[in-house]
Amino acid sequence: MPSQNETLLRILTMLRHIPKHPCQTTARELITRLETANFKVSKRTVERDLLSLSAIFPLISNERSRPYGWSWSKEASPQFEEVKELVIKARNYANDLSSEDAKAFAESDFCFSNGLVEETRKAIYDMPITRDCYLHFKNNKCGFGKISLINLMADKLLMEDKMVDAVYLYQSADELIVAGWVID
Fold first, then answer.
1. Which terminus of the chain faces fewer neighbouring Cβ atoms within 10 Å, N or C?
2. What is the pTM of this model?
């Protein structure tokens, strides 16, 4: 049985991975993110936690389709930032991070795991073959974009934003990731 500290850290980690509305995440996606952070948990436990946490925090569930999508409500900005700070403090307290890593964690994007960031770097480097000849991305601001494989082959990270009519040029995969883009 996990200790109270492990349970608290798991719940804070889970809260950290719930995006702000209109973006959503499912219980299954949360399990994947928790497993990446070395937490073993069942889908039923995550679902129970989400229901309990929604009584305390402004979390909302989209129950119109299955699987249910969870997000922080539009008005949740102060609580969202408080949870971010709690996660940082909890991780520092548990000595899971060095002080330099804690600073990087605090400044990093809030929703994307290290595994997803590495997948993004790998996809940019490997240039997988896709049906539509684009590599598709999502942004931490709930945006979506794409880079053509032709541009990738030319080492040109030219992101076409699908939500707004804009194009962004990045010098490296790291610059693209710092701007909040990861593979979708």
1. N
2. 0.50
